[in-house]
Design a protein that fits this description.
It contains 15 helices and 12 strands. With 436 residues, it is of the alpha/beta class. The chain folds into 2 domains: 298 residues, Beta-lactamase (3-Layer(aba) Sandwich); 120 residues, 2-Layer Sandwich (Transcription Regulator spoIIAA). It has a 5-stranded antiparallel sheet. A 5-stranded mixed sheet has the order 8-9-10-11-12, covered by helices on one side. Strand 1 and strand 2 form a beta hairpin. The structure holds glutamic acid (GLU). The site of glutamic acid has 11 residues, from loops. Glutamic acid binds next to loops.
């Protein structure tokens, strides 16, 4: 069977191809020479399948889309405290190249140039040279893309010839001691970072790496930690689309970053990475066809982050008693279902808080639980622990190991003093007794 996803993406691409509104960025003269007809849409899953239509292999400069990735590397290199002390995370409500600082003397966020130039300066350690910083950035972004990225020297030179605004920003930052390096050197490094060549396919993989908690789905390499990814995606959500973040969140609802060369990257946590490329920009500086395509895909595929996921009506699918009438061998089995997070686990806690259980043994059947996060795991194990303290014997029926090592936390805490351990079995039949 031919996948309908490619057919769908091709249809979307052709629907928006005729739209030639917008203007190419011209403040970097070389960008005005790009072919305005180029158009690509790519979707990468978090297990590395890429669906690409249009011109997914055409290279263009990454520009501002480098900012969230360099922010991620800076967080890894310096830790959250240092970075947050230097760069805030508030939407600025101003142009991306504004000369402004907040009340504490920090750039408003890492997605505007003042913040991005500062995060660039923070890569590595205090004693790093600009060359080392740039190498770290090229290596890091290449890791996100899963292939070696190169700098477009022509675009870089063209931007550097006209970098007066970014130089002004860097001098302002230096004046207020936001960084201490030589401003032109930092601007040159930052401009080189923005001149890395990517394709729409690369951007989709970079986005999928964010969507996949920092693990590149092609190479399997963990590039940055899950905590760093959460921070980066949050800032992309509030500040990633220049001054149209509000429209973007309501219409599309995917953490995203756009760049003046026409790229637009979106990362939907736990689901997919997306990328579009089309050089003509709207008056906010976002790719016109890119924004429209994202709006359409998000609507058609229900990708808005605020979309409420289908909820399993009942987390406790049913309750049965095994070995009924067999005294000490009676087991009350609670069959749980779905993917459990806080709200699902709360239902289980509530069920047990509201009733007395008469059987001496209790089993949680996890056969139909597909996944549970660390909070749900902790809450279910806490229910188990309290049942044990009430004198029950507790079993997990867990054929797929969705709760590995259930007793590990109890061993770690000597105060818990459990009378018995939680027993793990693979199926209900292991709990069934033959009537004699
Ligand atoms: N290199 C560009 C600049 O700093 C990037 C801008 C952008 O893509 O928004 O002006």
């Amino acid at each position: 069977m031919k996948s309908m996803i490619i057919d769908y993406l091709s249809d979307v691409l052709e629907d928006y191809r005729p739209d030639d509104s917008g203007e190419q960025a011209s403040y970097i003269p070389e960008l005005a020479h790009a072919d305005p007809d180029h158009l690509a849409v790519c979707l990468a899953t978090i297990d590395g399948k890429v669906y690409a239509v249009g011109d997914p292999e055409v290279e263009f400069t990454i520009q501002s889309i480098s900012k969230p990735f360099v922010y991620a590397l800076a967080l890894e290199d310096r830790g959250f405290d240092t970075i947050l002390e230097q760069v805030s995370v508030e939407p600025s409500g101003e142009g991306f190249n504004e000369l402004s600082l907040d009340d504490l003397g920090r750039p408003f966020n890492p997605m505007i140039n003042a913040g991005a130039i500062t995060t660039h300066s923070l890569i590595g350690g205090d004693d790093w040279t600009e060359g080392q910083r740039l190498q770290r950035i090229i290596n890091g972004l290449s890791d996100f893309a899963g292939r070696r990225l190169q700098i477009d020297e022509r675009v870089c030179g063209s931007e550097l010839d006209h970098a007066h605004r970014n130089l002004a920003i860097a001098h302002m930052l230096r004046n207020y001691d936001v960084f201490t390096q030589n401003p032109p050197t930092v601007v040159e490094g930052y401009t080189r970072q923005c001149s890395l060549l990517v394709t729409a396919r690369d951007l989709a993989i970079m986005a999928a790496t964010l969507a996949n908690k920092g693990i590149n789905p092609l190479t399997g390499k963990q590039i940055v930690s899950a905590r760093v990814v959460r921070q980066v995606l949050s800032v992309m959500t509030t500040c990633g689309m220049y001054n149209s973040a509000g429209d973007w969140v309501t219409q599309v609802g995917i953490p995203a970053k756009s760049g003046v060369a026409g790229g637009l990257l979106g990362a939907l946590p736990g689901q997919v990475g997306l990328a579009t490329f089309s050089p003509k920009l709207d008056n906010h500086g976002n790719s016109v066809r890119g924004v429209r395509i994202y709006e359409r895909i998000s609507r058609d595929m229900g990708l808005n982050l605020m979309e409420i996921p289908p909820t399993v009506q009942s987390v406790i699918r049913n309750t049965t008693v095994l070995n009924e009438g067999m005294g000490e061998d009676e087991v009350c089995v609670y069959a749980l279902q779905g993917s459990l997070r806080f709200a699902g686990a709360e239902k289980i806690v509530r069920e047990f808080s509201n009733q007395d259980i008469y059987e001496p043994k209790v089993a949680f059947d996890l056969t139909d639980v597909h996944a549970l996060d660390r909070v749900a795991r902790r809450m279910i194990l806490e229910v188990a622990r309290r049942l044990i303290q009430d004198g029950k014997k507790v079993y997990l029926i867990d054929p797929d190991d969705v709760i590995p090592a259930p007793n590990a936390d109890h061993h770690a805490d000597p105060h818990l003093k459990l009378k018995t351990k939680i027993e793990v079995v693979r199926s209900r039949s292991e709990l069934r007794k033959e009537e004699s």
